[in-house]
Please model this.
Amino acid sequence: MMQSLKQQWFGNIRGDILAGIVVALALIPEAIAFSIIAGVDPMVGLYASFSIAVIIAFVGGRPGMISAATGAMALVIVNLVADHGLQYLLAATILTGIIQVIFGVFGIAKLMRFIPNSVMIGFVNALAILIFMAQVPHFLGEGTMTYVFIAITLLIVYVLPRFFKAIPAPLIAIILLTAVTFMFNVELKTIGDLGSITQSLPSFFIPDVPFNLETLSIIFPYALALALVGLMESLMTAQIVDDMTDTKSDKNQEARGQGIANLINGFFGGMAGCAMIGQSIINVKSGGRGRLSALVAGIFLMFLILVLGNVVVDIPMPVLVGIMIMVSIGTFDWGSFKYIAKAPRTDAIVMLATVAAVVYTHNLAIGVVLGVILSALFFVASISKVRIHQNKGVFIVEGPLFFASTQNFIQTIEEAKENHVTIDLSSSHLWDESAVGAVVKVVTKLEEQGKTVNVIGMNPASEKLYQQLLNVSVSH
Model:
């Protein structure tokens, strides 16, 4: 245990520190942008990013993953902020944390196994598209120099690592190109154009809301939505980082950690947050692997705000746009084009539907839930085909009998012309009350016609269910 913690904290000190610095620089414009989306002061997003990143470094279940204020969470709270203001948002953030801790205690991570690979691919591709789309307003119609700086940034982050890896390329791009704008007085949009930065630490306070059922009825629907969206994005991002680093993580601990981070964060004036796939990928690609990277990202973010706030606001947006475009390119699963061509048609449809839903609604939860429902419907449709072979009054049933597959079974056997009918279920299985009811129905109908019916071949599980539900099905 101690050896594992030591490795998570101090197994990659240099890589984690440098990666954390890069992440902190990239967090600032995103935190400000997400605050603007949510309709709150930029400092609400910045304080959230600081608090969550630092806390999750200690209590999270996925070392090397970055959590902060996110666009997905900002979209959920727009109406709450518009209708009730910041104090209710902070109260909802605290409640979100409590719900997430409860989910973590009860093992919500087990639900991850119900998310098919096609939905995962769609989720990742949709995020890549959303990351890119979020950059478009920062460069569209901004002038030639904006495009030049984006191009130079991309050139640095893709070419430089081939020759020099001691310092992460995105960090070099930020420092170098910011210096160029100062030296040559280049007019470009800067971080400061997104919003002002207050050079002060967050302070502890209890949200100024009435402690009654009316307040709970206002914030609970938002808190529940935030908890679900946050955990969905966090657990999926954890899985992606697992795959990128070929390591395992504790998803239930991550769920509890996200809850603890949001719970504390709400008392320090921050909006609800979760894991960030873009920042996590920046972290991993910059060499971050351990808990130290998230801690450094949070602390350096606050250092930038407190000490270098006046310098940070002058970082050119095109440089950060270039880095985020790199993230979107790196996030997108380019093998999914081959996947669409070679995977079963239903899987390809699920993947595309997930992408379309997330991109259209900007809501990750809607896309993932739609993808899971579509997958379930396609699966039910594929296994609901029951084949029945008839041989002189013997009906051999092949395939599972359940609510979606009983219609063909009933229609075929009810048309039996022989006086002695045998229903052979040795190649089938009764899964639910609908299956038992279907068998009882055909037996009853045939016997009412004066025919003799034998049901044979039930496996022990089907026999047990049949006997258990026989009276229920007869009463129907």
About this structure: The first strand starts at residue 67 and ends at 69. The longest helix spans residues 213-245.
